[in-house]
Amino acid sequence: MLLGLGAALAAAVVFGVATVLQAIGARRVPTASGLDPRVLLRLLREPVFVGAILLNGVGFLLHLAAIRLLPLYLAQAGISASLVVTAVLAVRMFGDRLVPVEWAAVAAVWAGLALLTTASGPIGQVGAGTAFVVGLFVALGVITLVGLATSRAQHQVVPAALGLLAGLAFGADSIAVRMVPDLSPLELWHAAPTYAFLISATLGFLLYSIALQRGAVAAATAPMIVAQTVAPAAVGVLLLGDQVRSGYYPVAVAGLLLTTAGATRLARFEGAPRPDPVRD
């Protein structure tokens, strides 16, 4: 438990730094008019965006360890602490301030994680049957189609909608990691969930990058945090057998709500990504 929680929190630190770099890089390239994969090629020419990719890779390895050692509801909630890191970085880098409600949100994230850790029970199933894997690919297909339609729309809710879809895609990659029965190289090569992970991670990254281009960071990040926390938590408990300690369901629900609400409020802290960065 302690090793998994440590991995989740370390991943949160890395992802928090990467979020700032990704937002800066995304705003340095022309805004996409649709779900255009060429956006990734433009982004890869930006050094800060490449740095975000490398950090996300490190964060993924840490998060992978957390997913394999913790119930999904705790592993995903731990990642919500990345918003705390992003807010603190904004204070340090750009001289912004956290107002009292934002400090309360920081406290809510940590309190929620403490409650979830207290309520956490044994991890559920590792690996899944064919029907489950097929269902995951179908879900990714639906997210892609809805993302295509949404990215072409011209409406103020588009950034939030794209952020929500990105969160569902990122949540799917966590589920895919749990569905691989063995992390040996040979098993990873032959396991269908490996390819579900690659698709979902790429899709989530693309959707979130376009959402950052289309609107405020808060509008894109808040729904992403909710989706990538709540959806895998529900799948873990309802379908994969993640357990909560007997009599601690109210504590677990309160912890999940506190963590998600705190992270969502911190997503409104836009100080870090909003300034137009100067090109090197």
Mind explaining what this structure looks like?
The protein is mostly helical. The chain has 12 helices and no strands. Helix 8 (158-179) packs antiparallel against helix 10.
What are the key terms here?
single chain; 280 residues; mainly alpha; globular
Layout of strands and helices, then pairs:
Layout: H1 2-26, H2 38-43, H3 47-69, H4 72-79, H5 82-94, H6 100-119, H7 130-151, H8 158-179, H9 185-190, H10 192-214, H11 217-238, H12 249-266
Helix pairs in contact: 1-3, 1-4, 1-5, 3-4, 4-6, 4-11, 6-12, 7-8, 7-10, 8-10, 8-11, 11-12
- Tell the overall outline: globular
Main pleated-sheet profile: none
In DSSP terms (H or I, runs of 4 or more residues), the helix count works out at 12
The percentage of residues in β strands lies in under 5%
Helix content: over 70%
SSE order: HHHHHHHHHHHH
Structural class: mainly alpha
* Termini separation: 44 Å
Question: pLDDT average, as an integer?
Answer: 84
The total of beta strands comes to 0
> What is the CA-based Rg, rounded?
18 Å
Low-pLDDT segments, ≥5 res: 270-280
Briefly summarize what is shown:
With 280 residues, the chain is mainly α. The protein has twelve helices and no strands.
